[in-house]
Amino acid sequence: MKLKLLIILLISILLLSGCNKEDKIYPLEFSQTDSSKIEGLQLDNTGKIIEEKILDNERSAFIFMDNENAEFLKGGITFNGKSYYIGEVSMVDTPDDLMGIEKVEVFGKKAVKIYGILGADYAQAFYWLIDENPENSIIQVDGNTFEIDLDNDNKKEIVSTSGTIPETKIYMLKEDKVCVSDINKSIGAKSVILADKDKKLFVVYFEPNKPEEYIYDKDSFVKR
């Protein structure tokens, strides 16, 4: 009788542990991210403009090569008659498909994305929220970036992935502040990558050769 009860107890424990294993939900930790610092720029000293996106008579974004440093291309914006330097955008001679300026929408706001590569496996992007004060409107994001509506609220978030062992972050608006979650650190994963943009599907490795599929849901990562 005792043996039978013990067997039933062991089976119950195994079934419960199996359910927990298959129903993994990991809460994500978010923290506020700072705006990228910008500084005034004298256009007469910039040298050659490589690419420019004119938004209207008062606003534009551009990539340029200055006269003092020919190793990296740099980024700038013009706002209400004043120009600002935002930072290094990409290496010189970067292929056109890896560098550029695009109009996008993030956090329900109009933005311009200025992106490029600064080295092997070192992509980055600047997002300029064009309707805000330029001093607080530039967000610098490391990695390959995508704009996706993860939470189905008709406002796109930013997903970025960087490194040869992929590390992925989510940037989203919380209480009118841009916040970021490092998914790898939040859930204790070795590798996280956005595998399917349309299905919003992430592939996670907690250990080698054992991929698991997850989706974002209510500030958590939920196993598919």
Walk me through this protein's architecture.
The protein is mostly beta strands and 224 residues long. The chain has one domain (27-223). The chain contains two helices and 19 strands. The strands form four sheets. The chain has a five-stranded antiparallel β-sheet. A hairpin with a 2-residue loop joins strand 6 and strand 7.
Which terms summarize this structure?
single chain; five-stranded antiparallel β-sheet; 2 helices; 19 strands; globular; Lipoprotein
Write the layout of secondary structure elements.
Layout lengths: L1 H21 L2 E3 L3 E2 L6 E2 L7 E7 L4 E7 L6 E8 L2 E10 L8 E7 L2 E11 L2 E8 L8 E5 L1 E5 L8 E6 L4 E8 L2 E6 H5 L3 E6 L4 E5 L5 E7 L2 E4 L1
Protein name: Lipoprotein
Organism: Acetivibrio thermocellus AD2
- What distance lies between the first and last C-alpha atoms, to the nearest angstrom? 40 Å
Taking the sheet with the most strands, its summary is:
5 strands, antiparallel
Discrete helix count:
2
Please give the radius of gyration in angstroms.
22 Å
Summarize the structure.
By secondary structure, the protein is mainly beta. It has one domain. It has helices at residues 2-22, 183-187; strands at residues 25-27, 31-32, 39-40, 48-54, 59-65, 72-79, 82-91, 100-106, 109-119, 122-129, 138-142, 144-148, 157-162, 167-174, 177-182, 191-196, 201-205, 211-217, 220-223.
